[in-house]
Structures are given as structure tokens and as C-alpha cells.
Amino acid sequence: MSSDKKWAMVIDLQKCIGCDTCTVACKAENRTPPGISYNVVIEEEKGIFPNVTKIHIPRPCMQCDRPACVQVCPVKATYKMENGIVAIDYDRCIGCRYCIVSCPYGARSFDFGEDYSREMIGYNEVQAPEYGIDRGKREKGKSPIGNVRKCMFCYHRLQRGEEPACVEVCLGDARYFGDLNDPESVVSKLAASPRAFVLQEEMGTKPRVIYLK
Amino acid sequence: MKSSTRLTKAWYGVLVILMALGGWAIIERIRGGLAVTNLTSTTPWGAWVAFYIFFVGLSAGSFLLSTMIFVFKMEQYEKIGRDALLVAILSMVLAMCFILIDLGRMERFWHALRYWNFTSILAWEVRFYVVYIGLLMAELYFSMRQDLIRAAKGSGWQAALARFLTFGSTDLTAASKQRDHRLLKILGSIGIPVAIFGVHGGTGTLFAVAKARPFWNSGLFPVIFVVSALVSGTALLLAIYVIRSKVMGREVDKEMVKSLAGLLTLFLFIDLGLEFYEFFVGAYGLQYTELATIETIFRGPFSWSFWWVQLFLGVVVPLFIFFHPRLKESVNAITLAAILVVIGILGVRFNIVVPALIVPVLPGLPWGYYYPTLVEWLSSLGIVAFGLFLYTVAIKALPIDTVEELREGK
Ligand code: SF4
Ligand code: SF4
């Protein structure tokens, strides 16, 4: 994968129907344990009665260009990759959770070691090849248990030339994924639209997930 | 004599029981990982982090008090000088124990020194702690050296230890004494900025820089940390001094106790004033998360810890005692007040860590809820008992009291 790409995601809130398919697909793709969802869909009511509407805001990790989590990690276990994605090195992370506390988007979760083995036969037998690394079985005392986890734009899928799982399954076709370095890409064009905005802009984190009003 | 040995036995007995319970809890913790806690991804820090900053604060406070003696020559407090240093060291040891068991991957604790992210306050703190503990040990050593040399002449295991620690030096001349004093002054002077800006101000900064948490994210936060450290350190040393004097049947220096109480009152008032600004300026911004956090502190499920522990027990009752015409003359009442202040500051630490992590960072994300589990409580108790145990052993083994005082007493 050439590193001149700078991955970004655009989410059109007008097209999102709040079905949570992205959340489910993400859990299936990354085989995240109970209590961990890299992606959630936040439901928010806007306006004052009787003029109320409901909006749904899907929230993956924003892969911030000025990531608060990277700033605070004492051991550089979480870091910014060339391609714009913020990664976690599971073999270095000491599990201090300073990054969870510091992320303004609540995008990080701690892996307490729970599993779905009762609900799902063989859940512990394989793990998702996050960051392109095959970690074998999910076992007590083995990373990523005891580490912090989060969305990484399905980096392992990007390596195979596929889109992130949430983008692929989105029922409303609300998610766009692409290269922000390429001015001709769909995401670049959408990001320049007057409808574009980012969450918590005042935090100065410069998210790479851009929303359309 | 007899009753005092019985007392000692009972004391050790209690400590051993608590340490055993704590040991069980820590084994549970090691086997079960952080799943044995009530922490979640919404509220990822809890009791252990609160205890960690509590003990870092006690350490910084005690140390700063000791500098009044060794650097600023406020000799009226000389009797608690070494105690202050010893308490500062042991508090740091406990703080490190707490933060160690809090790590998701304890076995990688050394990564914190091996890898260094320059922009991480936590990374800087780890290094400050190491330097600071080294400084404290050196200072305690030089403050005791003369008495160690004297003790080395005796017999028994204490003397053997003293002989080992003095490396055979028998130099008791005025020149060597002066050199020790000079060293103390230098070490203390280096220690002051390290303790204020590095160790405790730094620990406050760790929270203050988290812009995702508006309640912490203020320039006043590190200052409040340092002032509340002075509050808790002074209170603890006062209590320890009185309790130890009583147990050992020595006379309590009432004037010093009263003077310490005065100092404590001053610190308490400054702390209260700063807290007021912190809440007032924070609330005035009408920012959603900030308001929600303040509301959680004032009216949340654990608001009792704010109103009753932090304010009533930790501030109102002690101030009442310190100003009451009769009570302020009673050493016992003052000691009680000091103990309450220490407990109050523990409440302060919990109310710093937890409420800000209950409120979600984005509206619509789940709210947190946190109350420590039995394992968290017992392990904390065990670690505190371990600290008291180390303290008891240390005052037995080392000349923590100045020799003159020992001669006076008994
Ligand atoms: S959203 Fe949070 S976890 Fe993701 S890069 Fe930004 S600060 Fe880090
Ligand atoms: S939990 Fe891991 S990734 Fe997060 S700040 Fe600590 S060491 Fe870094």
C-alpha cells in the first residue's frame, strides 16, 4: 500500500437512517468482545417541542490529524501512521487508559477480557487480523486483552484493497471512503461541500471523519 | 511496658490481617485482570487512580513541610522533619503500588521508562517520580547520618543496620555535621521545584491537559493539586506526630501542634478559595459537559462524598475545631480535626477522578457509573496497611527521631 494515500471518511447524515448496520458489521469484522464497539450510532434529538427531529450520528474513531490520544500516550503505543490512520501497538500499550480519558469523541475502549464464547461457538478460536497481524486465539493474558482498542478504518481490509466494513454495508449509502490527498476523489469533493462539518471542532483535533449536515 | 508490647502486637496483628486481605484481592486482580473492577470504557479510572493522586499529594505535602525545616530553617517544626521525609517516601511507594495495579498490562510497567513520548505528561511524571524518590531518600539519609553514626556504636540489629548504612564512617566532627546540613539544604532546594512543578503540580497537569474533560481542563487545576497536597501533608504529619508521641509515652509539644494547626487552617482556606474559583469560573461558561460534571458532583449518586466527606468532615468540622475557643486548645481535638482533613482530601481525590468520567464526552453517548468493587476496596486497604507496616518498621529501624529528643523522652 503506497503511503501517499491519506485516508478519510465522509458520512452524510441526511442519508443515515440510524439502522446500526455499520455497528454490527464492525463488530463482526473486528470480532470485538462484549462492551467494545469501535463504531456506535449516536441518536440525538434536536430542536424544541413541537419542532423536533432526530438525527443519527455514526461515530467511528475520527483518526484525528492532531490526535489527543497520541499526544498523551506515555509510551507511544498509539501513533499516527503515514496514511492518516491512528494506530495502537498492542504489544507496547501498558493499559494506562490515559488515551481513553483524553479522546474527545469517546472512540476508545478498554479490553477487559470478556468474550462471547457462551453465545458463539469458537469465538475465542480466531481474532480479527487487526493492523494486518494474526494474533491467533483470544487468550487470557494475551494482547489485546488489557489494552485499549479502537477503530482503525479496518486497516487490514485496506491492505487487501477493500473498503472498511461499515462503508461496505451501509444501508443508506451514507458513508464514503477515500483518499483526501487526491483532489479528484469523492471524499475530497464532499469534504469541500458547504454541508461539511466535523464534530467538536473547537477541540482542535482536526478529525479525518467529516460529516455532511 | 507490658501494655505497650501488647499494643504493638495488636497493631501488627491488624496490619497483617489487612495485608492478607489486600494480598488476596491483588491475587484476584492479577488473575482476573481489570475485569474484577467496576471500571468501564466510559469511566476508565477509579479508586486506584484516586488513591494514587491522594498519595502523591501526601508525599508532596509532607516533603514541602520538611523543606520549611531543612531549607527555610523554621526550627519550631524540627521534631517532625525526618518523619516528614519518611512519610513522603512511603507515600510515593504506595502511590506507585496503586498505579501499578491499575495498569491494564502490569508486566509492561517498565515500558513507561523504556519508551518516552515527549508530549505525554504521564511520561514526564514517571521520570519526575523516579528523580523525586531518589532525592527524598538522599535527603532522609543525610538528615539521619549523624545519628546513624551514633547508633552504629550500640549493639543489636539496629546498630548493625546503622553500621552498614554509614559505610563505617565515624566522623562526628562539627565539619561533617555542617557538610550534612549544607547537603540537606541543597537537596531540599532542588526538591522544592521538583515537588511543586514536577511531582504534584505535574500530576494535576496530567488531568488539566485533558481537553476532553472541561472540568479538569483549567490552569488552576495544578495549583489546587499543590495546595491540597499541602493541606493533606500537614494534617497527616500533625496526626502522626501526636499519635506517635502518645504511644511512646513522650510529651507532646503543644505549641508546635498548635502552630501546625494554624498552618493547616491557612492552607485549608487557600484551598477552599481556589476550589470556589474553579467551580465558579467553570460553571459560568455554561458549557454542557462542565455543567453536567458539576451537577454530578453536587447531586449525583455519590454527591454525599462531596457534601459530607469532602466539605463537612474535611472542612467544616476541622475549621470549627480550629476556631472553637476551647477545642482549639485541646491536642486531641486538633488531632481529630487533622485526621478528618486527611479523610476529606481522600474525598477530594475521588471527586476529581470519578465525576468527570461519568459524564459522556459527546451528548448521546452512555453515561458512566462507578463504585469500587470489594476487590478494589480490599486491595486499597491492603496497600495502605502495607504502608503503615513499612512506616512502623522504619521508625523502629532508623533514627527518625532526633537523638536529643530520645534522650529527653523516656
Ligand atoms: S477520535 Fe479519539 S481515538 Fe480517534 S484519533 Fe481522535 S482522539 Fe484519537
Ligand atoms: S492505554 Fe495504551 S495506548 Fe492508551 S495511553 Fe496508555 S499506553 Fe498508550
TrEMBL record, chain A:
Signal peptide: none annotated. It comes from the Bacteria. Residues 7-36, 51-83, 84-113 form the 4Fe-4S ferredoxin-type domain. One of its GO terms (molecular function) is 4 iron, 4 sulfur cluster binding. SUPFAM superfamilies: 4Fe-4S ferredoxins. Keywords: 4Fe-4S, Iron, Iron-sulfur, Metal-binding. It holds the Pfam family Fer4_11. PROSITE patterns: 4FE4S_FER_1, 4FE4S_FER_2. This is 4Fe-4S ferredoxin. It comes from Carboxydothermus pertinax.
TrEMBL record, chain B:
Pfam families: NrfD. Keywords: Cell membrane, Membrane, Transmembrane, Transmembrane helix. The chain crosses the membrane at residues 7-27, 47-72, 84-101, 121-142, 186-208, 220-243, 263-286, 306-323, 335-358, 378-398. The keyword Cell membrane applies. GO terms for cellular component: plasma membrane. It comes from the Bacteria. It is a multi-pass membrane protein. It is found in: Cell membrane. PANTHER family: PROTEIN NRFD. Belongs to the NrfD family. This is Molybdopterin oxidoreductase. It comes from Carboxydothermus pertinax.
